[in-house]
Specification:
The structure is a single chain. The chain is of the alpha+beta class and 288 residues long. It has one domain (21-273): Beta Barrel (Porin). It contains five helices and twelve strands. The chain has helices spanning 2-14, 82-85, 206-213, 215-221, 270-282, and strands at 16-17, 21-33, 47-57, 62-76, 90-105, 113-125, 129-131, 137-139, 162-175, 180-191, 248-261, 264-265. The strands form three sheets. Strands 2-3-4-5-6-9-10-11 form an eight-stranded antiparallel beta barrel. A two-stranded antiparallel sheet has the order 1-12. The protein has a two-stranded antiparallel ribbon with strand order 7-8. Helix 1 (2-14) packs antiparallel against helix 5 (270-282). The longest helix is centred in the N-terminal third of the chain and has 13 residues, at 2-14. It is elongated and about 65 Å long. The model is unreliable at 1-17 and 269-275 (pLDDT under 50).
Length: 288
Amino acid sequence: MKKLWCLFLLCPSTLFAQDRLHVMVFGGLSNYQGDLRNKQFSLDQTQGAFGLEAKYDIGARFAIRSGIISAKIAADDKKNIPALRIRNLNFQTNITEGNLLLEYSLFDIKRLLSPYVFAGVAVYHFNPYSYDTFGHKVYLQPLGTEGEGLPQYPDRKPYKLTQFSIPFGAGIRFAVNDKVEVGYEFAFHKLFTDYLDDVSNTYADKQVLQQARGGLTVEMAYRGGELKGGSPDYPAGGTRGNGTKGDWYYFHGITVTIAIRTTYDYNHPMRYREEKRFRKSVSCPRGL
C-alpha cells in the first residue's frame, strides 16, 4: 500500500513539462543613441519599458517569439557634452513596437540555466515632441525643423513615424520550476532613420523657415536663446546633427516566462530535484 501511495505522489512530480508555448512578460529600462546622446550605452536619462510576448519552442534550441513592447525615450542637451549644450535641444517620444524574433539557446532549453541570443524584424511607431517656452507640448515632425519638405532642401523628405527596425540581443533564463523561468535580457534596435530625436542634418536658413513654417518652427530648430546669456541666432548650414549615423534604441530588464501549454517529459532535469523532495517527505522505499 505504501508503494502505491508513493507512486501516486511521484507521478505529478516526475512527469515534467516539455513546454512549447509560453507567455513572456518584460519590464525594464529604455534608452537611445543619437544626436542628443553620443554614448553607445548609458543609464543617464533612462525611461521605462514594458512588453508582452508569446514564445513557441520549435526544437531543443530554437524558438519563435512575437509580441508588443511599449517604451519611452527622452534626452536633453542640458545633459549632453559641453560643446552641444548651447543649442539647448531636447525631445521625448513614446515607442510602440511589434516584433517577430528567432531565438537560439546556447544550451538545450531544458537546462536549469539557459543563455540565449535572438534577432528578427520589428515595426515601431514614434512621434518626437518637446515643450515650447510656455510649456505647451509641440510635436516636432510636422514642423520640419531642418527644412524637410521645402523646395529649398529637395534632399530632405519628411520622415515617416512608422518604420522598420532590426532588433537583436541576448539574455539568460533560470528555471524557477517546471512552468516558470526568470531572466534578464538586453535588446538593441538598429533603425533606418536618423530622426528618432528630430535631429539629423544641418541648420536650415532661419528666414526660409520663418516664411514657410512660422516662428514656432524657428524656435524649436535652435533653442540657444532660452539659455542665460545664450543667443537665438544660428548659422544657416551649420552642423545641427550627424547625418552619417543613424539612431538606435535599446531595452534591458527582467523577463518572466510562463508555460501555458504542457506535454509531459520524463527526462526534464527538474524531475530529479522534485523526486528527491517527494521521496524524503513520504519516506518512499528505495526501490521506487
